[in-house]
Amino acid sequence: TLARYELAHGGDPSASVSSARQALQRAFAIKPDYGFARFNLGLSFQIEAEAAFLRGDDPRSPSSKAVAEIEHGLRIRPGTSEAMLDAVRALGFDGVQGYFIGRPQAI
Q: Cβ(42)–Cβ(70) under 8 Å?
């Protein structure tokens, strides 16, 4: 995508991400449960998270939104399956947390 290219080459992908989200919102108005559009919305949040990280900002909020939208787009029950892990691996995340990985432990 253009936003991914901008990010990879040191540009600011904000305008491209915003434009993509507007197009996706139009798609949702026509077909609210359009999985492909939900997945792409998740990817837009992933790009936003990467940009935040590169700026030194906290990427957690857009990262969480990315995972939620991708789960929705792939029709995965939130945080409860191997498919969820495969999805976040495919997005390039190198760390996850949650009950599926392991229960909380005292430190």
A: yes
